[in-house]
Amino acid sequence: MIARDNRAIRAFRQGLFVTVAATLLTAQGCASVSRETTGSIGRSSGSAPVAAMPASRLQGAVQSYGAAYERDPKAKAVGLSYAASLQMVGRNDQSLAVMQQVAIAHPKDRDVLSAYGKALAAAGDLPKALETVRRAQTPDFPDWRLYSAEGAILDQMGQSAEARGLYRKALDLAPNEPTVLSNLGMSHLLSNDLQAAESYLRTAARQPGVDSRVRQNLALVVGLQGRFEEAQKIASAELSPEAAEANVAYLRQMLAQQNTWSMLKDKEGQDG
After folding, report:
1. Which positions ≥6 away from 5 have C-beta within 8 Å?
2. CA-CA distance, 37 to 31, in Å (whole number)?
3. pLDDT tens column, 108-123
4. CA-CA distances (angstroms) from residue 230 to 52, 92, 187, 203, 226?
5. Helices and strands, number each (H, E), in the chain
6. How far is CA 195 from CA 6, 104, 116, 202, 230, in A?
7. E strands within 4-66?
8. Where do the TPR repeats start and stop (predicted)?
């Protein structure tokens, strides 16, 4: 197995949380900004969820949602989608500022509280993020997305055993939900259990409607085990040329953080 340190692996704690945040926005029904129903971009209008947008479209989404938010900063769906698009382009502090305003306008709304918790985590305030997400959960009517979100925060805090218990609770409510399986796989990656990570991520990748970032994470885990060519095929499978290029670039970036990209290519050459 390729020698590596844990610094790059721990960077994926942010990736764990981003997946859950995007899921909360896309799993609750789809609506355009103008219709202002909860939490996503409109399927009916033919537009894609924020989580599924290629990088070339994200900046346009940020501008569009930003303009809508400026017109009505109290609109729930607009605020959620604007905050999500800001997180997708790495503007976490601004995303948090947006969610703070939305939370003031909707102080008891579970969707808003959960998205606020994710924005807090993305901005690095993990204890407050955990408190906020837990406050949004209700024991008598639990939400699998909140269990998964709480688990992702705990994984970022290094509490993997507790996090995995929450992922399993989420799976009890939503069997084979790909985002939860992906988070469970990434949790095992954080513990350097690459075989378990690959198993969960492969199961997640087989589910219908899976987000492309699950495939990215699977490619990463395969690449970390030295199967570079297989990883590259996974990263670019069943995607448009633009999306495939973005996925391979993601894989290259992640592996380069620990100087394994060239090592993997060398290993492939030696094995051939």
Report:
1. 258
2. 6
3. 888 898 889 989 998 8
4. 23, 33, 22, 17, 9
5. 15, 0
6. 17, 44, 34, 11, 15
7. none
8. 144-177
Could you tell me the two tokens for 166? 């929450």
**Where does residue 36 fall: left (phi above 0), alpha (psi -120 to 50 degrees), or beta otherwise?**
left
Long-range contacts at 58-64 (CB < 8 A, ≥ 24 apart)? 58/85, 58/88, 58/89, 59/89, 61/85, 62/86, 62/89, 62/91, 64/33
Domain ranges of the chain: 7-267
Tell me the fold of 7-267: 1.25.40
Answer whether 124's CB lies under 8 Å from 157's CB.
Answer: no
**Tokens 């954080």 label which residue?**
190
pLDDT in tens, 68-92: 999 999 999 999 999 988 988 889 9
Question: Which two tokens mark 113?
Answer: 């509280």
Regarding pTM above 0.85, the answer is: no
